[in-house]
Amino acid sequence: MNFLENILSRLQESPGRTILVEAHADGNRTATGVELFTQINTARTFLRKSRLTKGDRCALVAPNSIRWAALDLAVIAEGLIAVPMYARQAAMELAAMLRDADAGLICCGDAALRDAISAAWPDTGNAPRFVLFDEIFSAPPSSAQVAPPPPAGLSSGDTVAILYTSGTSGEAKGVMLTVGNLDHMLSCTGARLDQLMGPGTVPDRVFHYLPFCFAGSWILLLSCLSRTSVLTLSMDLTKLADDIRVAAPDYCLNVPTLLERIRTGVGDNIHKRGGFIAKVFDRASAAWLRLDAQSPQTWDFFWLGLAGLLIFPSIRKRLGPNLRALICGSAPLARETQLFFMMLGIRVLQVYGLTETTAICTMDDPQHVEPGRVGPAIPGIEMKAGENSEIVVRGPNIFPGYWHRPEQTAAVLRDGWFHTGDQGEVDARGNWRITGRLKNLIILNSGHNIAPEPIEEELFRAVPGAQHVMLVGNGRSFLAAIITGADSAGIDSQLERLNAGLPHYRKIRRYHVAQELFTIENGLLTANGKLRRDTIAARFAAEIEEMYAKQE
């Protein structure tokens, strides 16, 4: 039984159990097993009438919803290839990727999105068919009650999805994922979630806000549908804090940015109160870091115990009374942030992987979390550090190739190994740490190679109000930084403190505070929030030249 057959079977076996929940201000909308199965059947009926044939591409361009999940499964059940897209991306970029995929049908969440993509289509005389979700799911209830045909016969090597990478270099590539990729990955995520939740028949309570078009987010959706879970979807990010309190999840998937903001927000709120509570919090935080460094002082356990009575329980309650773990992926999480949540009594489980590895290469073991590392390789795959500490991987989670890009495929799939482009190191227990990205390396004219990410992370944490930090200096004599969202006051003192602990070639000699923020909408961030370094460097070329025109 493949992953799709398993999900459809589970829906039929749990007809009355709530499977998916949409969190809305005017009341939640839910789907039971039978309701979701019926919606899948309705979408399948529509797709069959569209006269697409096996292997044709069907795009989904819409925010998360119950209907998104139903349509995604319907596309795969009909033997089509799902091409999910990030609805907030620029229409021109969406049109380019959809044309690259040669999508025969483009399913849009609303008319405004459909019209924007259609207007941006480069060849209006050869535009594909656009259809709205409302049209797909508007079939009369009676037609949806007809028993659906069995899912299309799928073999392990059949491609079921093409997910476009973020394209930090400016070019997005379609990553093909197969039935075999998903079968293996869902068995791994299911086993790890069993470790987290323990034995029992009570459904996992899961909260989710990340777009399903991203590989890790999609894997979470499929994992929840493959297990006994209730998945609550955030429908309004401005209501995120309220929604998560109401959902009271056991776990949720996060990106480092949100956890960093929670950490900063907790600290700011406590310091605004001031007085004895702020004193206890600061003393306990310092004590926790000393314990981690194995250099405790006499009163450390007292302060931690006091904070454990007066402060930490109320913070945990606000984050979720049932929270067993926060799962974090997409980028390395600052070790200090992971330690912060552990101090509160909340585990943060890191996951590392790429779209090309079906989202995951490593997952933290819930019983053996090592802060600052992303856990061991998942079962059934091999990982090692190759030349220049590049992480290379092989196993059933590795994608078969990029859509219509044989040369780029050959460049990353060599001798059976996928070359990730990430740099890392592994300890004696098999836990990996991500240290940088090869193509982001800054090579000074002195010949020193510098991974910018660790320094950027430190400066970001040091500068109050900073939204993003990017180092520059390739081919130059020293490093400089572009900082967004910060007040210039205090940056000099923070830089002096940071530079004091760095060797001469890693010191930041100049900085520019940019008024323009880095966003997805202005093209300076990828769809999943990563820096588009080349684009940023081009946008701020004059400011960069000005920094280097000054005397050292």
Descriptive overview:
This protein has three domains: 3-250, ANL, N-terminal domain (Rossmann fold), CATH 3.40.50.12780; 256-321 and 323-438, ANL, N-terminal domain (Rossmann fold, 3-Layer(aba) Sandwich); 441-549, GMP Synthetase, Chain A, domain 3, CATH 3.30.300.30. 39% of the residues lie in helices and 21% in strands. The strands form six sheets. Strands 2-1-10-9-11-12-13-14 form an eight-stranded mixed β-sheet, with helices on both faces. A hairpin with a 2-residue loop joins β18 (413-414) and β19 (417-426). It is globular and about 70 Å long.
Q: CATH homologous superfamily name of the largest domain?
A: ANL, N-terminal domain
Strand content: 15-25%
The number of distinct β-strands equals 25
CATH-defined fold name of the largest domain: Rossmann fold
CATH second-level architecture of the largest domain? 3-Layer(aba) Sandwich
Which class of the largest domain in CATH terms? Answer: Alpha Beta
What oligomeric state do the depicted chains represent? Answer: single chain
| Average pLDDT for all residues | 91
Supply the helix-strand structural class. Answer: alpha/beta
How far apart lie the N and C ends? 65 Å
